[in-house]
Amino acid sequence: MNQMSKVTADGAQDAPAHRPRRRWSRRHGGIAVIALVVVLGGAWKLVDKPQAQAQAAQIATVGIAAPLQRAVTQWDDYVGRFAPSQTVDIRPRVSGAVTAIHFQDGDYVRKGQLLFTIDQRPFRAALAEARASVASARSALLLAKNDYARVQRLTGDEAVSASEVDSLRSRLQAAQAELAGAQARERSRALDVEFTQVRAPISGRVSDRRVDIGNLVSGAQGNGATLLTTVNKLDPIYFNFDASEALYLKSQRDKADGGLVEVRLQDEADYRHKGRLDFTDNGLDPRSGTIRIRAVFANPDNFLTPGMFGNMRLANGGKASALLVPDAAIQSDQARKTVLVVGKDDSVAAKPVELGPVVDGLRIIRSGLDPQDRVVITNVEAAMPGAKVATRPTTIKPTPAPVTPVDSAAPAAAQATFVQ
């Protein structure tokens, strides 16, 4: 019994001796984990540092080229409308009923072509009466001539008094005047008959008829006469536009090449209609500050129509030498435009420039750039002002692009049917 209790007592005394040993093993395990993390972190920094340094040391490569020097024609843009070179309101010169119409609405008519016929019967009757009056006056004149010649041959006792001779002479002169008046009335009546046939005074396109057969028309003077139709001369055709005072002054100072103009219509992509300036008004409108100018265009096929809208450009300054760079090389710096250039030490700098129009994808530089500058034209986003870059030579080439029409979308069809 005493031995059993000793063993138990010894076991109870040995248990506290094993607990410090377990705590010591846990402490060593934690220290080992911390050391491993520190070692791995240091190794990662040693591995990653050369890569970061390599990335920091990498230099961007950009394409550079000198600005393209080309001769360009300078144009100014205007808008306007076409107008006929001549327009005539067709009105009758005599009154009467319309008996015939000799054209189709919208036809092209020639000068002198018959358009309308007015009832000729009353005017032919008046002409016949006038001719009878001429015959009567001619007979009276012949009698007066014979009487006067007879008294002139009388001599001696057969002679008549001077007063009778004067009377016969006066009768002869009155007969001559009566004949002249009768002949004038005959010509007037003949003109009335001629005016019953209304003819085209110019060649051009006729509008629709404003009266039909059987209607009475008035031949009053001026605009009181009945309007029958209108005729517009379309070849050549005019193009009217207004220019501001600034553009007018510029055109006057840079006048060259006779004022060549080009026009494109709203559904056209290029300026295919060529013309020249024809007229400039004698003063500016003080209310709008503009001046009225006119250009003339050949229109042999009558395609251009009065009232048609067009975009016009006027060659004011003639030809000039210009520096051009790709439009993609232009950068915006708040309110100014800049171009990146590379110096002799391969450092990038931004140059403020004044821009002109775009020609075949290239932007004209009016000022701020020298012909010897090395302009960044490719990989522009990688070049930063003040940074150094690697360069490779490139060339600037025009890339013609079609001009977008003013109204590129043709009107859509309202309906569609199957082809029979």
SSE diagram, text form:
Blueprint: H1 2-57, E1 61-65, E2 68-90, E3 96-101, E4 108-109, E5 114-118, H2 121-153, H3 162-195, E6 197-199, E7 204-206, E8 216-217, E9 229-244, H4 245-253, E10 260-265, E11 273-280, E12 290-297, E13 309-326, E14 330-333, E15 336-342, E16 348-359, E17 362-367, E18 375-378, E19 390-393
Parallel strand pairs: 1-19
Antiparallel strand pairs: 1-18, 2-9, 2-13, 3-5, 3-8, 4-7, 5-6, 7-9, 9-12, 10-11, 10-13, 11-12, 13-17, 14-15, 15-16, 16-17
Helix pairs in contact: 2-3
Describe the structure.
Helix 2 (121-153) packs antiparallel against helix 3. By secondary structure, this protein is of the alpha+beta class. Helices cover 31% and strands 34% of the residues. The strands form 3 sheets. Strands 2-9-12-11-10-13 form a 6-stranded antiparallel beta barrel. It has a 4-stranded antiparallel β-sheet with strand order 6-5-3-8. A 3-stranded mixed β-sheet has the order 18-1-19, with no helix packed on it. The longest helix is centred in the first third of the chain and has 56 residues, at 2-57. The protein has helices spanning 2-57, 121-153, 162-195, 245-253; strands at 61-65, 68-90, 96-101, 108-109, 114-118, 197-199, 204-206, 216-217, 229-244, 260-265, 273-280, 290-297, 309-326, 330-333, 336-342, 348-359, 362-367, 375-378, 390-393. The chain contains 4 helices and 19 strands. The N and C termini lie far apart (127 Å). Strand 14 (330-333) and strand 15 form a beta hairpin. The model is unreliable at 1-24 and 52-57 (pLDDT under 50).
